[in-house]
Structures are given as structure tokens and as C-alpha cells.
Amino acid sequence: MSESSRPLVAVTMGDPAGIGPEIVVRAYPEVLDAARPIVVGDASVLRRAVELLESELSIAVVERVAEATVGPDAIPVLDLDNVEAVEYGVVSETYGAASLEYVERAIDLVTAGTVDAMTTGPINKQSTRLAGSEHAGHTGLLAERTDTDEYSMMLVEDDLRVSHVSTHVPLREACDLVTEENVLATIRVTCDGLQAMGVEDPKIAVAGLNPHASDDGLLGDEEETEIRPAIERADAAGIDVTGPEPPDTVFGAAVDGAYDCVVTMYHDQGHIPIKLLGFSGDGTVSGVNVTVGLPIVRTSVDHGTAFDIAGQGVASETSLVDAVELAAKMARRRSAG
């Protein structure tokens, strides 16, 4: 692919104490056909990851991202110089603050048009909370800094896509968030996100909240009072949407091609089927996290910092490769209008 057709993607390093630096080094040569990645992080931490993996790559510190040379031999890094030494697998205010700054700088780059898209490495929520973040993860921070009101986490794993009405909140609170307006907003941004990925005429299923989608009111009433009215309004607006569908069967239908995405009501309802498909017995982790509804393109790995294996050189880069490639695809489509 030509230089001009490979979007510039800012890739955040993730928590320095996690597997982020390792998978960045592993993934870099694999994504060069699709994108021009620029890593936002700490050069010293990445050099240690290069040594750990006995990689032949070098680290090239760049001053101006737009002028960076992206080639096969050296990883270009916007060095924020936040971390002097790393102890793997440790929850730390310092590491949390560093990982947040990587994300904030990447957001600034993409909103300014300096890069075409961003892909984020894994951060540790305990560390970012110690650093003062009020957000449970990336999504809320991205929405806040881009002044976005309607957004959703969408997970992509091969033929299955799911989006979420709520994510990192207690289950009791998640049930309260199943409102007509929240469900409708999620359907809308899901449709827009699918089109941004190249699904021209998305077909969307909406899962129920209760077992068997309430079984005609026997097991709850949220389907009739909140979810169905949202579906009817989305349908009236021209979106191809159906439901509420029983949560225990809708994902199988989506994998078989009946739907392009399933709108789910809470975190685990959507995450469990995705993780079932994306986590293999050999340690390979695939799948992509996309924040739909933002004015920028943002993708992420679909896994955490994996402190238990950080620094061992065994972490899988598959999810990061998938995330960068999808970000590049979405950026190309956005550029083409």
C-alpha cells in the first residue's frame, strides 16, 4: 500500500507495568502494510521491551509527529519521558498518570488532525484511579475530551459485533441505565459506527435485559417500557433494527450472519460472547474495542494489562494488530467521505 494511503495512527503504549510495551514492539512490523503507526509513550520503557523480546527493531524518538519517518527498522516514538524505571505487574500512581497522559496526547493529536486515528494499549483502572482519574477506563475520558454526549463501546470479533448501553458500572446501576433514551442513543451510534466500518446497510438486533427478553412480561417489564419504544423510534428513523431479542440466543444468530451487531444492555452481556470467541487456549487474544459516536477514530485492544504475564515476553499482539488495522480502515473511509 502506498505511503499516502496508509493512515497515520497514534498508538498509545498503555500502562508501563503491563504488557502494552511488549505488544507494541511485536505488533509494529505487522501493521505497516495498513498504517503508519506512531507510538505515544516512553522511549526507555519501549527500549526495555525491545531487549526483552530480543527484537532487531530500534526506537526512534520523534519531535514532530507529522514529520516522523515510519519504516520497518525503527519504531517512531513521541517520548513523553514520564517513567524512568519499570517494575512489571505493579499498581502505581506514577504508571497510571503516565498512561493517562499518553491517551490525552493521542486525543490531542487526532483532534488537531496531526494524525488520522488513534489506537490505545491497555491501562490499569486501579492505577489511573490512584492518579486521580474519575473515569473507569478510556471511553469516558475520550467522550469528555471530545465533548461527546452519545457514544458506546463496540467490541468486534470476526463476524460478531456488540455495542453496550452501559459498561463499567455496578450491575444494579446498569439496570437503571436501561432507559428509552439511552437505548435509542446506543442504537443510533451503533448504526453510524457500523457504516464507518464499511457496513453500508447495517442490520441491528437489540438484546433484552431480562431472561428470555422478559417472556412477554413474566420476567420483568423493561423490554416493553424502555427497550421496545426505543426500537420503534429507531425503526421510524430508518434504521434496520429488531428486538428485544432473547439474550441467550441472539448472539448465535448474529454469528450466523442474521445481524451485523447486537446492542447489549450491560457490560458482561456483551463481553462474554466476544471473549468466548476471542480468547484461545494458546494465549492468543483477538478482538477490537471501538468507541462509536466520537468525532474521531479510536480503536483499542480487547484485553487488559495482564500483570500476571507482563515482562515475560509471551503476550499476544493479535488484538493490537487487529485494532490498528481497523483504525486505519476507518480513517481511510472517513478521509474518502
Q: What string, H for helix and E for strand, traces the elements in order?
A: EHEHEEHEHHEEHHEHEHEHEEH
Provide the CATH architecture of the largest domain: 3-Layer(aba) Sandwich
Major sheet summary line: 12 strands, mixed
- CATH topology description of the largest domain: Isopropylmalate Dehydrogenase
Q: Fraction of residues in helices?
A: 25-40%
Question: Please, could you describe this protein's structure?
Answer:
By secondary structure, the protein is an alpha/beta fold. The chain folds into 2 domains: 1-147 and 297-337, Isopropylmalate Dehydrogenase (3-Layer(aba) Sandwich), CATH 3.40.718; 149-293, Isopropylmalate Dehydrogenase (3-Layer(aba) Sandwich), CATH 3.40.718. It is 38% helix and 18% strand. The protein has 11 helices and 12 strands. The protein has helices spanning 20-27, 43-52, 93-111, 125-130, 138-145, 171-176, 180-196, 222-236, 247-255, 267-278, 318-335, and strands spanning 8-12, 36-41, 58-61, 74-79, 117-120, 152-157, 160-164, 203-207, 240-245, 261-264, 288-292, 298-301. Strands 3-4-2-1-5-12-11-6-7-10-8-9 form a 12-stranded mixed β-sheet, with helices on both faces. Helix 1 (20-27) links the parallel strand 1 (8-12) and strand 2. Helix 1 packs across helix 2 and helix 7 (180-196) packs across helix 8.
SSE topology:
Elements: E1 8-12, H1 20-27, E2 36-41, H2 43-52, E3 58-61, E4 74-79, H3 93-111, E5 117-120, H4 125-130, H5 138-145, E6 152-157, E7 160-164, H6 171-176, H7 180-196, E8 203-207, H8 222-236, E9 240-245, H9 247-255, E10 261-264, H10 267-278, E11 288-292, E12 298-301, H11 318-335
Helix pairs in contact: 1-2, 7-8
